[in-house]
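User: Hi! I have a protein structure encoded as tokens and I'd like to know what sequence might fold into it. I'm fairly new to this, so please keep things simple.
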């Protein structure tokens, strides 16, 4: 029995060192949740913007449809850190595009048109239809 114990111990260590389970593997659901969190952070930042005579209203394409193009356009003013918002959106759009390819996502493939006009009303940028 004493001769068997070292072999058993070494075998256990070997098996533990080469486990197949990897906790870092992302699931579709966890990746979707990460995208949702990123999108909410972007929308929250844009929502803090105010407009007045010293700022400009702008919009940016948000999201990446599986067929191409954005899901929507986000309206904001230059009262916020525009560079930060643009970087967040660029990263988000790239991650969503990668997600779509990885998981074979599908969508309606309808083209979303950008706003034709935006204006400042009650310190909020709004789309004019």
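Assistant: Happy to help. Inverse folding works backwards from shape to sequence: for each of the 129 positions I chose a residue that suits the local structure. Here it is:
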């Amino acid at each position: 029995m004493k001769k068997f114990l070292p072999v058993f111990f070494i075998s256990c260590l070997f098996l533990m060192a080469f486990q197949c389970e990897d906790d870092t593997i992302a699931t579709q659901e966890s990746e979707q949740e990460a995208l949702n969190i990123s999108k909410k952070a972007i929308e929250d930042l844009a929502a803090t913007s105010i407009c007045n005579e010293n700022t400009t209203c702008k919009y940016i394409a948000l999201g990446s449809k599986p067929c191409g193009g954005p899901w929507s356009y986000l309206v904001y003013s230059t009262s916020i850190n525009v560079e930060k918002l643009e970087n967040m959106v660029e990263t988000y759009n790239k991650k969503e595009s990668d997600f779509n390819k990885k998981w074979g996502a599908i969508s309606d493939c309808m083209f979303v048109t950008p706003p034709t006009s935006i204006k400042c009303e009650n310190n909020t940028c709004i789309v004019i239809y």
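A useful reference point when you look it over: The mean pLDDT is 88. Feel free to ask if any position seems puzzling.
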